TrEMBL record:
InterPro entries: DHFR-like_dom_sf (IPR024072), RibDG_C (IPR002734), Riboflavin_Biosynth_HTPR (IPR050765). Coiled coil: none annotated. It comes from the Bacteria. Residues 6-163 form the Bacterial bifunctional deaminase-reductase C-terminal domain. It comes from Nocardiopsis terrae. This is Dihydrofolate reductase.
Length: 186
């Protein structure tokens, strides 16, 4: 059965992008030689992303990827839903632009993703409002974060809403703390 997993990197103070929507703070985190052998948790993250059967993200996240890929074909083979109210620039690939302004629309979208994923997991890339809304509707199973050793003081929140979680796993992966939580359904 498909699991719906919010898999992302975050700052220690809970931001997935800084106030300028930049990820530079993430890419400048460096491993130390003594971190070698801590790669298992990051391998699991890569394996999750490779195995996902559907992807969902918001417009800001899509625009970031689009800018950084410089018009190259979409890097993921599986269907990707982009939530937006605008006409965003397209690239080649299975991209599905849509909006989901009501709970019913978000539930319908999730049902479409489950069908497309056909038993594989659904990767919620971000942002934090989409992940929190899926959790509120009982549609998010897991939050899996790689916590970078940096604080930002502001930016795009990891989870924009109240979500109760149950810890599943905590591992070091180089300079990152990889934490997995199950979403507690009320
Ligand atoms: N650290 C990481 O690993 C990581 C992972 C993911 C993202 N990020 C970064 O984090 C930031 C996230 O940005 P963000 O918090 O603004 O979130 P976002 O979800 O990427 O984008 C928010 C925008 O998406 C559209 N949207 C969201 N929900 C919608 C819905 N239900 N229906 C229709 N449109 C909807 C709206 O745009 P419009 O109405 O204007 O179309 C909204 O302003 C980005 O800078 C991204 O690059 C970092």
């Amino acid at each position: 059965m498909s699991r719906t997993v919010y898999e992302t990197a975050t700052s220690l103070d809970g931001f997935i992008a800084d106030q300028d929507n930049s990820l530079e703070w993430l890419f400048t985190v460096e491993s130390e030689p003594e971190d070698e052998g801590h790669g298992e948790a990051l391998d699991r993250t890569e394996e999750f992303i490779r195995g996902a059967g559907a992807i969902v993200m918001g417009a800001t996240t899509y625009e970031w990827i689009h800018r950084h890929e410089g018009g190259k074909p979409w890097p993921y083979q599986v269907p990707t839903w982009v939530l937006t109210h605008r006409n965003l620039p397209r690239v080649a690939g299975d991209l599905r632009f849509t909006s989901a302004d009501t709970d019913q629309e978000l539930q319908d979208l999730h049902a479409d993703m489950v069908r497309a994923a056909d038993g594989r997991d659904i990767w919620v890339v971000g942002g934090g409002r989409i992940a929190a809304n899926l959790a509120r509707l009982g549609l998010l199973d897991e939050v899996s974060v790689s916590v970078a050793p940096v604080s930002l003081g502001g930016g795009a929140p990891l989870l924009d809403g109240r979500v109760r979680l149950k810890p599943l796993e905590a591992k070091l992966a180089g300079p990152f703390a990889c934490l997995r939580y199950a979403v507690v359904r009320d």
